[in-house]
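Table 4 source record.
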Amino acid sequence: MMQGMVLDERLDREHTAENAELVARAGNGDQVAWDRLVDRYGEVVWAVARAQGLGVRDASDVSQVTWLLLAQHLGALRQPERVGAWLLGTATREAYRMRRLRGYEAPARA
């Protein structure tokens, strides 16, 4: 879990001020701001789902749900500058939910 916390902190460190602005703009319907968020964090959301051992189809579902939840909560984020950490946590929860729903085996640990 410690590694996840470190990733949370690193994820937003270099984009703090810009993230808050992008979240505000995306919340007001700015498609360019939304696209920047997706470009910045899309691979992270995908990687979280795949790291949980999900197949491509289920990882895609987790990714879509994660972005949908962000769209629904843009105006309610307490720390919009930490949107990357929010996405990481949400994708992780959604991947766990999908694993339970689909009855996946636990991912192998190295």
